[in-house]
Amino acid sequence: MKLEYFIAKRLTTAKHHKSSISKPIIKIAITAIAIGIIMMIVSVATGLGLQQKIRQKVSAFNGHIIISNFDDNQSEVSKVPVSNKQDFYPKFTSVEGVNHIQAIASKAGIIRTEKAFEGIIFKGVGSDYKWENLKEYIVEGKSPNVSGALNPEVLISQYLANRLYLKVGDKFNTFFMKEDSNEMPNLRVFTISGIYNSGFQEFDATYILGDIRHVQRINRWQPDEVGAFEVFIDDFTKIEQKGEEVYEQTSYMLDSKTIIDKYFYIFEWLQLFDFNIIVILVIMIVVATINMVVALLVLILERTQMIGILKALGADNWTVRKIFLFNAFHIILRGLLWGNCIAIALMLIQQQFGVIKLNPENYYVSEAPIYFNWFYIFLLNLGTIIISFLVLLVPSYIITKISPVKAIRFD
To answer: How many CB atoms lie within 10 A of CB 181?
Structure first.
């Protein structure tokens, strides 16, 4: 066992040390380290969790990349059809990283019941639709069957169901306006097979999902004509790169855009979380290191006579400095141990019970999501240790200025 570590361990476990003046300072330092790592882990977990959850919701309803006609249509409604006889459909093999593509078509309408009415967008989907993306949001019933014969089943949001006083199994009338406003609107009677709740107000207040063949018949399209294609990729971090590749692999008559371009205001807002996380990390590390510097200075002051004796016995400055750095390392580890235990416990509680609730109108989710990643936790702990040690090297330099003669006489 090295001499520096042996002495540092004896200092840490010494009984008289626990009743010394440094005792409250050390407790404050441990508490500061613990609070700092708790705040850092929780802020990263919730910040990244919120970003991922919102990205997941937006892509579940829109895909990662949308391919549509090259026109000036800024609405969510499909006006000009696109043939599904494309090289990239039903398998987009020309771009690596694309795992699924599905055809959709949208039509604006009005739901009217005996008690209320609401404007909606009917999103028509086919047998290739990836219902797994919406499975976690279905709170009642099931997704409509669009793979067999044409049927009136639809999936409606809980928000619309509550406003229209509808439940699973109910039927309702939906009116679709024709291009010629003088003509009578098309009437369709739908049956609710399931109710979803994404917590994303923009989608919940607008969309109902059903068979794409309803839109094709209302618009008098051919069976091979659709409104757009939704493309899903494996890695969201490469969405801009894949968006460019998809654009290059499609016809000059088609346009493609990523959900980042379509919902730029949401993703610009999400980027602010990165800045907020960095600010929290910096503040917590600064607070923790300041407390550690104070604790180390108090330890050095309290052990001035010991420093003088060690130097008189032949110990060099670096040997003495390492004793106090080992001591500080012990304090940091205790703080990190308590902080990690508390932070992980808080995250597990939030994951299981959703204690912290959020307003979905402001945050697009009903409860604070948690992104649990051991690698990020390890990096935060490692970064805290490295930064603390680098900072503590400065106050430990005071040891080199202590004279053995004066130190031994110090009282």
So the answer is: 7
81 three-state secondary structure: coil
- What would the two tokens of residue 363 be? 């945050």
Q: What is the DSSP string of 56-83?
A: HHHHHHH-SEEEEESS---SSS--S-EE
Rounded Cα gap, residues 407 and 411, in angstroms: 8
Each residue's pLDDT tens digit, 192-239: 999 999 888 888 999 999 999 999 999 999 999 999 999 999 999 899
Q: Phi/psi zone of residue 388: left (φ > 0), alpha (ψ -120 to 50 degrees), beta? A: alpha
374-396 vs 264-302: helix axis angle to the nearest 10?
40
Residue 243 CA to residue 56 CA, distance in Å, equals: 17
Contacts of 385 (CB under 8 A, 6+ apart): 329, 332, 336
Secondary structure letter of residue 91 according to DSSP: -
Query: Helices in 63-97 by DSSP H: which ranges?
Result: none
Look at residues 169, 60, 78, 72 and name the one whose alpha carbon lies nearest to residue 122: 78
Residue 100 and residue 130 in contact, taking contact as beta carbons nearer than 8 Å: yes
> What is the pairing mode between strands 225-226 and 138-141?
unpaired
In angstroms, how far is CA 100 from the centroid of its own chain? 23
Give Cα separations from 296 to 10, 131, 336 (angstroms): 16, 59, 17
What is the rounded distance in angstroms from the CA atom of residue 73 to the CA atom of residue 79?
8
- Contact by Cβ (8 Å): 293, 388: no
Pairing outcome for strands 186-196 and 171-176: antiparallel
How many other C-beta atoms lie within 10 A of the C-beta of residue 255? 16
Residue 197: CB atoms within 10 A of its CB come to: 17
Separation of CA 3 from chain center: 47
Answer for the pair 79, 219: CB distance below 8 angstroms, yes or no: no
Q: Work out the angle at residue 369's Cα, subtended by the Cα atoms of residues 356 and 382, and round it to the nearest 5 degrees.
A: 105
Distance CA 342, CA 339 (A): 5
Sign of the CA dihedral with 53 first, then 54, 57, and 63 last: negative
Angle at 139 between CA 138 and CA 142, to 5 degrees: 55
Q: For residue 379, give both structure tokens.
A: 């990096």
Backbone angles phi, psi at 372, to 5 degrees: -95, 110
Amino acid at 285: I
Token pair of 310 as six digits: 């060690």
Q: What is the pTM of this model?
A: 0.80
Report pLDDT digits (tens) over 91-126.
988 899 999 999 999 999 999 998 899 999 999 999
